[in-house]
Amino acid sequence: MKYQRELVVLRKENLNPACFLLELKSTDSLCEILPGQFVNILVKDVAERLLRRPISIHDVDYNANTISVVVQKIGLATEKLSLINESDKLDVVFPLGNSFPTEEKRPLLVGGGVGTAPLYYLAKTYYNKGIKPAVLIGARTKDQLFLIDKYKTVADVFISTEDGSVGEKGLVTANSVMNESFSAILTCGPTPMMKAVANMAQERQISCFVSLENRMACGIGACLCCVTETKSEGNVCVCTKGAVFRANEIKW
Ligand SMILES: Cc1cc2nc3c(=O)[nH]c(=O)nc-3n(C[C@H](O)[C@H](O)[C@H](O)COP(=O)(O)OP(=O)(O)OC[C@H]3O[C@@H](n4cnc5c(N)ncnc54)[C@H](O)[C@@H]3O)c2cc1C
Ligand code: FES
Fold first, then answer.
1. Centre of ligand 2 from the C-alpha of residue 191, in Å
2. Is 56:117 a contact under the CB 8 Å cutoff?
3. Is residue 118 part of a domain?
4. 13 C-alpha vs ligand 2 centroid, how far in Å?
């Protein structure tokens, strides 16, 4: 079931120069939301055209009826969204897409940049089931990291920065935690990072799931602008068949 609702901006927090968090409150109870699912937010551009933009669900609070998202300012809609104020309303369609697996015995979650955002709700889901996952976070520099202490409440956190300003120096694939044994690797971030992580997982015969961030518009399988090529099903819409896929299913 998908809903289109007006959600109120309960809290807005700048996390670093590029990213901000929005906590969005629903007046009605929330339906079940799975880790890896996303919302499609309606934003007006400068010419007052209406654009919907897909943003991953970072956290859900069923008691407060809130969904949190972390947004990186990258272009027209996300810049416009960064100007929103607390108490403003947003037209949001949710929950969209499928889910990361939540039954792994020892998962490693790997996030790059703003792709780290959905991994909090995923880590929390595992933690609430009695499994403390490992979360490996990659960024160019420490200024791009966000909410690390929050992740540490539900996971063992490992960090790689390209300049070595925090954690191990280098790419996530070079982090020492990658040498430990895991039942699965679940990853979200820039495509080259996910591809490299998927290759490593394949070499080590660990199952790997990736969350693709193809450009989207409708979010419900109608416009076909988010298509990706898979090995077993050919071209599929990322918004309805994904955004989470088995890495070895994707024709990168
Ligand atoms: C399932 C899904 C989940 C996402 N989750 C998040 C999230 O949690 N937080 C977040 O900040 N962003 C997320 N994104 C990406 C976000 O949707 C885009 O950054 C946003 O739509 C850009 O809109 P814009 O108008 O600001 O930029 P535009 O003006 O449309 O584009 C600006 C630049 O960004 C590039 N770009 C636009 N969309 C994407 C994309 N999807 N992937 C890579 N490059 C892109 C364009 O090619 C262009 O160079 C997600 C995308 C998907 C598909
Ligand atoms: S975004 Fe329209 S079909 Fe996927």
1. 19
2. yes
3. yes
4. 29
Distance from the first to the final alpha carbon of the chain: 30
Q: Are residues 116 and 76 in the same domain?
A: no
What letter represents residue 33's amino acid?
I
DSSP assigned state of 30 = P
The predicted-structure confidence for 142-191, as pLDDT tens digits, reads as follows 999 999 999 999 999 999 999 999 999 999 999 999 999 999 999 999 99
Number of domains in the chain: 3
Report the nearest atom of ligand 1 relative to the CA of 242. 1
The Å distance, Cα 98 to ligand 2 centre, comes to: 14
Helices (H), ranges, 100-174: 117-128, 148-152
In angstroms and rounded to an integer, the radius of gyration of the C-alpha atoms of the chain is 17
Indicate whether 129 and 169 sit together in one domain: yes
pTM for this entry: 0.96
Contact 86, 9 (CB under 8 A): yes
Beta pairing partners, 42? 52
Strand partners, 188: 111, 211
Domain range for 251 is 214-252
Tokens 């809609």 — which residue?
77
